[in-house]
Specification:
alpha+beta, Translation Initiation Factor IF3, four-stranded mixed sheet, 3 helices, 4 strands
Amino acid sequence: MSKKTNPSSKHLRAIGHKLKPVVSVAGKGLSASVISEIDRALNDHELIKIKLAVGDQQARAAVTKDVCDELGAELIQKIGNVIVILRRCASPDPRLSNLIRPL
């Protein structure tokens, strides 16, 4: 059996692959300043890549869930220490949005 993927999620993963991480979550975890920086990046770019340098796989999964739940974002892809998340804006800036502008 092959896993069927949504074409739009495949497109989002392709865009996310080309991105560089805009935020790094390190040993101290999710502080208020890290959450606000991720929120700002999502408002500007809609689709962002985050580097997680926090412990083992379970710790990274917990941080990923916390980020998505707290900011209303959707997990698009998770590979090792890097996640790609999406939160669409009502009126995105075409100069900043990773979904609109060419990379």
